[in-house]
Amino acid sequence: MKKIAFIILLLCITALNVFAQKTGRARSLALRAHKEYLDERYSYAIAFYNASVKYDKPDSLVIHRLAESYYQIKEYDSSYTYYDQLYKRYGNDEKIMHRRAELLTNRKKYEEAILAFEELAKRFPANPVYQHKYIGLQNRSQFFSDSLDYTLGFLKLNTAQSDFSPQLLGRNFVFISNRYYKKVIHKQFGWDALPFSHIYKVPDTTSIIVLDQIPVANEKKLFNTLKINDDNTAATSNDNNSIAAISLSGLYMGDRNDLPMFSEQLDARFNYGPLCFNKAGDKLYFTRNSSRKVNGRFNLEICEAQLVNSQWSNIKLLPFIEPAYDFFHPAITEDGTRLYFCSNRPGGTGGVDIYYVNITDGKVEPAIIHGGKSLNSAGDELFPTIAGNEFFFSSNGMAGLGGLDIFRTIWQKNDWQTPVNMGYPLNSHADDFGLVFNNSRFKGYVTSNRRGNDDIYAFQKQEKIIPVDGVVLNRADMRRLSGVTVYIKPKRDTGRVALPITTTYTGSYRFDLKPNREYELQFYYRDTLEETMAIVTPLQSDPYELKPVIIGKLPVAAPVVTAEPDRDKDGIPDITDKCPDSKGIKPLKGCPESDILKRLAELARNVYFNTAKADLKPESFKPLAEVISIMKEYPDVLLTVEGHTDNQGGAEMNKGLSQRRAATVVRYLTSKGITADRLKAAGYGLERPIATNATPAGRALNRRVEMKAIFRNMD
């Protein structure tokens, strides 16, 4: 009996010893994980946390930090698993509830996310973000209303790592990436165990390949490994060398897509972020990490570099940088007088806000100015870019589809107006940011992590518009009234900016609006609201004429107008005559035939083709846009596009080339909504010269396109 008792006691002691060893090992691994977490080395923290839970059940702190670490490296499914566990244990914690709600949105669990944000809005009404998110998700269909306006294409240069925030410098395509450069990792970022981010370039944008379909990545994942010993000391021969694998976010696509670094002068020791160039292209403002720790962190800072003898030099820290805080994501106005940026410095409206500094005589001033309520929310505002009087930025504090959504605002009345969500497909359930337009303003690039890691997409705007025409009359004499300010805004979206236009000397106005939408028009004369009008635009793209708006007061004893006036006696009443003081024709709404014919001839002279080809040059699109506008404004205009050449080459070859060029113009016009029955292409080759072919100047004049109009419905 004593022997049995002794054996049982021995087994208990052994079990306790094993348990103590496991508990001690779990504790030491968790301590190492906590250290990595506090140092923001989240990928390594995950490895140690996961190793620790193999030896002991995790406590709430381990679960919370594991959830947040996965969130920071954008492993959202794993993050949600742990945050959902925390929510079930600690349902009243605001930060846990908020993070879980965001993760539901990111995973497109919209109905669950609506309930989560509704609960947050009720429990924590002081934070307006929750109410914005709740209402936005309930009405998320509004973010898809313009989805046909844009097409997205996936860039072949994307890798399994992060590629993001492109900028255009001449023909250079400049972007940020933490890709594996030449198969050598010089520096690793502990945040996600990937290489430091550097600035890369594609020397010529025409060489960028846009894939018709987003490729399916290989199932092969990238891994990093850590050897884990039994405490926080160096490994010894007594340690058990456990291997913890860290999955690198995203799938390996089998192509490293090696591209040159943007500049050898930008030191590879730093981790780089978004940048911008001034309009002249000789100044660069960029984000990088500081070389010195402050309060245990390498904070972000903005530097300036100058282009001298084709080299980026004179690199210096901007004077407004405060070492204790992050300063990042610069964006400069086109006139070069303001530099916007993001910062987590105290005194803002949320976590990260947009600020700006003035630039005087090319020098950045030190005084920091808050960007204002239009650009900031109680959440984070990031990645600003500027195009003319338009400002684009990303926010997670305003109503959207999830993660960071891109917003647009315009400069009006000496301030930025209420921002508007850009909608799908530029925005998605994930983080969307870094939008930049090319010179045409119809094409550009945007970054999104909707596939799991940051990728760059090309987008093209192909917005369908309805030309809406109207006229304002003076009630006193029924004459057309100039100088009336007309505001228009979508009826169902009070947040959108009312864009003003002033009536011309003929009392007319025009808006290009979206089809099948409700709008409200407001008519102001001498700063007084005189009239309002509600309209619904049609589905078709033909011009839409509104009934005349009559404003002003009828004078006492004013005569009753019984006949419609016609000042130019062309048979078209002034109320519908676009040129009431010049005799015109009905198909041109009362304007002279010669005006349109002359303008079409001028526009045709500015349509150019590549040498010996039928491809339109980029500078041809602007005059053709005006041709399209004329055709839409006057639906009774029929157009013949004629192609002509000089006498260089054979007659048959020239005739074929001229026919192809005319057909190219016709195809372009039909692609923009002009019906084919109103267009005709004719190639005459060298048959109809307008100048001598004996001189280069004469031959240049003979290489041309002509546009000749005829009119229907003359009666």
Automatic annotation (TrEMBL):
Residues 596-713 form the OmpA-like domain. Coiled coil: none annotated. SUPFAM superfamilies: OmpA-like, TPR-like, Tricorn protease N-terminal domain. The keyword Membrane applies. Transmembrane segments: none annotated. Pfam families: OmpA, PD40, TPR_6. GO terms for cellular component: cell outer membrane. Keywords: Cell outer membrane, Membrane, Signal. Residues 1-20 form the signal peptide. It is found in: Cell outer membrane. Its main location: membrane. InterPro entries: 6-blade_b-propeller_TolB-like, Bact_OuterMem_StrucFunc, OMP_bac, OmpA-like, OmpA-like_sf, TPR-like_helical_dom_sf, TPR_rpt, WD40. SMART domains: TPR. PANTHER family: LIPOPROTEIN YIAD-RELATED, STATOR ELEMENT OF FLAGELLAR MOTOR COMPLEX. This is WD40 repeat protein. It comes from Sediminibacterium goheungense.
